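Human: I would love a firmer grasp of how sequence relates to backbone shape in proteins. Could you go through the record with me and say what the backbone is doing? Here is the record:
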Amino acid sequence: LGSHGSEDFCISYVTTGVLLEKLVNAKRMDMYTHIIIDEVHERDQEVDFALLIVKKFLKLNSPRVKVILMSATFDSSAFAKYFSMYEKSGPAPVIDIIGKSKLVNEYYLYELKTLKSLAKVPEFDMNNPMIDNCLYETVLQLLYYFDKIEKAEQNVPLSQTYAPQRGAVLVFLPGYEEISRLCNVLQKDNLDLQLNFWIIPLHSSITVEEQQNVFKPPHADHRKIIISTNIAESSITVPDVKYVIDFCLTKNLVTDTTTNYTCLQLEWASKANCIQRKGRAGRVDIGRVYRMVPREFYNKFPEYGIPEIKRCPLTRTILQLKRLNLCEPQEMLAFALDPPDLSDIGNAVLHLKEALALTSRSLNPFDGDLTFIGRVMSNLPLDIKLSKLIVFGYVFRCLDDCIIIAASLSLQSFFSRPFQKVLDAYKSRLAWDDSTFSDCLVYLNAYKVWKQLSQQGQFRRPGGKTEAQWASSNFIQIRRINEVDKLVKEIKSRLEKQHIRSEHHSFKHDEKSVLVLKMVIAGAFFPHYFLQQPLDEKTIMRDLNLNDPHSTVLVSGLPPKHGILYASALKDMFTCCSNNIVIEFEEKKAYIKFARSASSSSSNVLQPVYLAVKMRKLGLPLELTIFSPEEADRKCQQILSSKNQNRDHRLMPNRVTVKFEPQMELKRIEVPPPGKSGIIDILITHVVNCGSFWARIISPSTNNLMRFLDMTIQYDQYRNLKVLSKKAVANMLCLAPFTERGKQDYYRAQVKKLRSEENLAEVFFIDYGNTERVKISDLREIDEKTPDVYTTPALAVECSLAEVKPFRSPTGEWNDKATEWFKTKVSGIQIQAKIYSVVNDVMKLELNVKDRSGIIHFLNKEMVEVGLAEPAEESFASKQNHEVREKASLYGNMEGSVFENVSNDVQVSWKSENTHDVHTLSRKIKLHGPYNPLEVEYSGMTFVDRSKSMKVERDSVNSVSFNPDPQEPYSAMLVAACLGVGQSSHDLIARNTTLMPKMRGLPSLVCLLFSPFAEIRINRERSRYTGILCGLGYDPRNGDPIYPDHDIELPFDIQISMEDISEINGIRMGVNLLLHSQTDILQYESHQTQNIHQQTRRTILQLLERQWQPKEPEYSRNPHRWDQVESHLLLETARVPIIRTSCHY
């Protein structure tokens, strides 16, 4: 929005959306003398709606306003006829202005048959738009041809490599995948042949800084090649473009007829589009356009594309029409330049009713009464579901955070994804996610950190990072995040006018706030719900050869039994994920095992696993250059014979484990075999949380080892300790200082990480379990005269509580309250522990603590009783190990028996000298993977979505999704802000997703709380509630569902009582009371609503924190059938005309 003028006149420059808003608010346009609408050929929905409103006002109340429509390529006769005000007045006048541009010659595919790649011209089909592979090579051949043209034009000898002036090339492709493919083709030859190409991809997801490259001149002798979507068709003008290569394809947003979701559909471009693209050349010199289709095929193209109003959802347009309140939407839209189909109007009305913007009392499929929520939506420049998010944020006292999320999702993402750094960009998003598994919270976290740093003046401090440096390192685009900031302020200003004000209850990163915010997100985006599909634990363990699935990925396709030769190459491939890996080879497979830090929970999937799987999803190639079979056999024998002198070298081992450059093999103390009672005494030495703590087994042998270590290390009060004689490296054993109660002592430690520039090392104290940062200069060597200090096994054992998990945790992590309670119970005392299982060197324990009065407390059960934990099923591996230990205990003590998973195969320490001679490598192979069996797929909950295949968009933090607890019999729930259709109508794309906490019964509670209408199922005996059918309800005249595609039938897996239903209805009533107004502004004052806000938020937290009793799901006898409850059993709650709160039970 911009204005220029004087006392006599004023010119305002506005977007079409701003013009529409001004006209709808004023319900007239005679405050202007002229209205000029440019680029009307684009025929987006706002342009067509603006034309409709302008024409209506010309007839209704503003006949003297002059309207001017402009475009370089549009059917002027159709527009002139549309604005014929009366039947006999004739069409509106048309003025043609001849532009000045250079000649642009047109060429088609058959004219390029002399090129090598076009020995056979591919076939083209109007009903099957596609790009044949040979056309990518044709572009490369054309670029060679352009050099010949320019040499001839500039009178340059053919012997000279390039002409002095190499014209820029603009290539039009339909999407990101096609751009990536052509870039790969060009870059390969550019590197191999030194062609001096400057390749610039141009599409919506690249950074603003990368987009600016298109306007920069290339270096001398370089050719600028811009590979773009239709963003370069009219949005930007590059003056030095001489050549345009047009594949004559575009991706248009359309509504899928089977799902009513939008999708980007690949289509042949219209002639108007192609003419616009042609106009990109010839600005400064004679140009050329090469259309990569035959001329005869091009002549079949339509003159103009299908207007957006006939192919896209009409929800926003109808909402504005309801606000305008001139007539019913279908009546008004009938006067559009190209009226939409009646079915599209009906679908839009259904979506508005589902979003609570219109009431469904009238049962008119093409209209409804505008609610207060609808009036808020019409006042905000947002999608209706994002407006609903803000409204619910107001109800549940997280308004500021919902405004930030809505503003971020409504604009182009402020996260950058540089063309060649997609994995780094994903890693950055994981950091912003902070284990919330929500794209919405990723935006919120990043925005709030940026805002805080800006307000504190951190970017202006000398010696610190500038705003641009900070943004670049965090993959954030400053220009776009500033746009979000402006929109946040605009939204708050508009809400203030409707008396919707923030009480500054801002999002804090505590579990309750995260939980409430996720529930608000789920409520706003109803019914875009999905459930994780179950996994089979036996299959998981088999696929990973009993390796820990939380820290391992699988790669296959290696040469059989020769995998060890490529250990270094594999390590290099996965360096982008982690430097600390172990590789286990077996036949054609390699198991990449990432090291777990001492502070990470053994039940969570490691970040390197996410990154490795993301590599596969991004299509990053895993290629190996391999030896010939004979050479590979010889080299394997050499390596294995040098490492294992006692093995028969003629037999290759089935499994080989490679460890890279270990300085010291850390040996851990053996876990006692099960005795008759299975009880051991332990001392807990360090607590990370209840899911990860370290303990020392108390026994005469371990006590003697501890005394020996103390005496040896502390000898002569540390005077004999020496500084490190060698440079500190990761994994080395040393002595490190630890200060407690003002006294500093030295203990055995293993170096985990080094920060040499800060003189800091992160060390793990192997006999206690804690990790600390110390100065590298304070590290001490273990004396060679005391080798037993090296060889004595680490005395600290990692432990976890058995058969419990964090209580209703949004992130699956133990909260501070539970950890502090646990510490007070176990600190500094000897504890009895029963070993449930030992898996991946972690003891799962049942703890018994005796208090001063002699009463024994069973900590695992007590944590459940006090509401800090809830019962959990152990993993398959844990239960399997438990069964083995239980059976073994029946036979008494079995000294020397092995009860854990121990490999007797070959282990190799891989050093730099093991790298092979690359000159003897013969050919390349492609590997498959990486895979992890904890990866999950999702199934839709609505009637229409349950039969579809769902994928999460590639930029989402949930694009790689795991089920870390497959042993649990219930599923986690995923919420999508919006849904689209993929390349096939069977494929759904979920965008801006949020993974809800994995809680039993949560999907049922979400549906009960936020569905517009709910009918509860009962069993035959009418003794309990068994499930729910939710959606828009049914037509009482015939019993038909109002919106069957979006109905959700869900059986309860928890016991829900009448009292629970009353509490849920109480929350729904609170929403009604807070949002009930017959005008455009809320009538209640803040002090009147404060109690309702507090009670509503408190009640939803009580529901979520309740210990729900599990039950077996009972499926409805008549699924997706409404009105199944007999009338004498029906109870009605009070109704408020804003939200349908009826629940049938």
Summary: Residues 893-904, 1133-1145 have pLDDT under 50 and may be disordered. The CA atoms of residues 108 and 295 lie 6 Å apart. The two ends are 53 Å apart (CA to CA).
